[in-house]
């Protein structure tokens, strides 16, 4: 009887230790480090070259106003344009434009390849077509970046988009 209890106890200990998370204190420190770096960066939205009916181009700029290079995770930003909803787009009636793009769940922490480095006193920018990922049927929208969770970036400015 005691032998069965010992075997059961050992088996339970092995199973429970295997279920434990593998995240280390170093991983948590690394996550906090990149997020605090990204919080120092500035996000700016500007209308792109919106020529042609239904075009909804937007320029997304990340600026580093500091004296040292800083990084942010490109997940949930237009620097990884194929995945994620990271804009809040509202029409004049206060209705949100429907998102029709792909969503993804990621394993944390992000690998080194997921980061973009912004040199000191420099900017990185990209252009994205909002019409590719959102249902845009009105003529005037207010656009705000909202994907700062994983990327670490702050929201930035609101932008008016005229179609």
TrEMBL record:
Q: Gene3D superfamilies attached here?
A: 2.60.40.2970
Instruction: Please give the name of this protein.
Output: Protease
